[in-house]
Write a sequence for this structure.
């Protein structure tokens, strides 16, 4: 393969990854890394480095829209960000000491989890579990929030519960983000929604805001270490963002059920292939 | 419910958009230049049109001022891509810095502290990679 055809292929795959990711509501990372490493034969570390750059690009773009719509809970985001950034710092620094097989194994587990969580029914828009314990941390740190829900045409207010659990999960999500070049939203959002009692729209927006900073923390380590291959990372970032933009335009016109089914199938196949690379 | 002042949200969202837009232009131009002459744009500037060179990691000390001047004169793609990547990664740093300022305006000391911690971790990550 010449560098020319390679780059075109990378752009094409990245557009597809961004498109699929935005249609099913995940970041491009879980698609970019398998595509680069399994399909194009790029080294797993270089794939992870390129992916974390693309995650910074997509989440910054989306986060700016959410902040304008006031869906983002900035206090909660900053508090949990201390944990995700610390996690990303550790993950990205430790990534050098973990052999490629180990990275494949971890990634295959994350893909399997993503496939499982995507195959479950979507949570209701403003529904949160009732009867969550009140949390003195959340009160002291003024974490409770509100936003205007356009679909419901009313102001939705919510209380935040189990802040400490949120910090622990955020740290783990950050560590995986730094290790594997993914955003980590699939891990944080269910916990923020079900355990902390935050409505799903505010979860998504707040998680997305955090992912930009988390991914930048990991990306800075990879970049200054010299692990980012410029002519892999650049076409990936441009492609994924382009794909995500196209995806957000198409969102209303495409039957999303079958895309989710196709996405789950891609995740399962990739998980099996990565698992195979880890043990073979 | 306490709300963030609207100005903060506007500043952050605007800053994010411009940072990303500018860095993507740089990345796009760099990738396009690379596609136009892959050999010339590859690191070291030689005419080796070889994929393995593209897939080779390159330590940061390669990127010097003379690398920049030479590359710019010959329209090498990496002269655009490297600053584009750096800008993209640095955009959230500015975002966090703006948030510190906004919490300080609200006289919210706890959150000035929390956000400063996030900024410190971000800056530390730039230094840690270099040290490794």
């Amino acid at each position: 393969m010449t560098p020319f055809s390679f780059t075109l292929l990378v752009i094409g795959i990245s557009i597809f990854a961004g498109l699929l990711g935005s249609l099913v509501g995940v970041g491009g990372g879980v698609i970019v890394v398998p595509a680069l490493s399994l399909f194009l034969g790029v080294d797993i570390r270089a794939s992870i480095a390129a992916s974390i750059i693309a995650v910074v690009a997509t989440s910054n773009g989306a986060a700016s829209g959410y902040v304008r719509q006031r869906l983002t809970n900035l206090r909660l985001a900053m508090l949990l960000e201390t944990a995700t950034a610390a996690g990303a710092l550790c993950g990205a620094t430790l990534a050098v000491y973990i052999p490629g097989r180990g990275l494949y194994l971890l990634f295959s587990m994350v893909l399997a989890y993503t496939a499982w969580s995507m195959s479950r029914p979507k949570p209701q828009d403003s529904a949160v579990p009732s009867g969550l314990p009140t949390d003195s941390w959340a009160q002291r740190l003024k974490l409770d929030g509100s936003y205007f829900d356009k679909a419901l045409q009313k102001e939705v207010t919510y209380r935040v519960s189990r802040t400490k659990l949120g910090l622990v999960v955020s740290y783990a999500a950050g560590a995986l983000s730094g290790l594997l070049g993914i955003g980590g939203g699939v891990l944080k959002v269910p916990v923020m929604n079900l355990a902390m009692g935050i409505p799903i729209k505010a979860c998504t927006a707040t998680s997305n805001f955090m992912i930009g900073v988390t991914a930048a923390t990991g990306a800075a380590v990879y970049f200054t270490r010299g692990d980012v291959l410029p002519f892999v990372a650049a076409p990936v970032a441009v492609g994924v963002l382009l794909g995500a933009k196209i995806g957000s335009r198409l969102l209303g016109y495409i039957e999303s059920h079958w895309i989710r089914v196709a996405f789950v199938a891609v995740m399962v196949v990739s998980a099996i292939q990565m698992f195979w690379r880890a043990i073979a | 419910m306490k709300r963030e002042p609207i100005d903060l949200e506007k500043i952050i969202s605007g800053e994010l958009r411009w940072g990303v837009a500018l860095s993507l232009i740089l990345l796009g131009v760099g990738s396009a230049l690379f596609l136009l002459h892959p050999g010339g744009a590859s690191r070291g500037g030689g005419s080796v049109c070889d994929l393995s060179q593209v897939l080779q990691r390159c330590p940061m000390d390669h990127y010097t001022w003379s690398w920049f001047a030479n590359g710019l004169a010959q329209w090498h793609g990496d002269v655009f891509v490297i600053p584009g990547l750096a800008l993209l990664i640095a955009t959230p740093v500015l975002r966090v810095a703006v948030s510190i300022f906004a919490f300080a305006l609200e006289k919210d000391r706890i959150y000035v502290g929390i956000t400063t911690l996030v900024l410190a971790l971000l800056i530390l990550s730039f230094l840690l990679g270099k040290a490794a």
User: Anything to note?
Assistant: Residues 41-49 of chain B have pLDDT under 50 and may be disordered. Residues 6-131 of chain B form one domain.
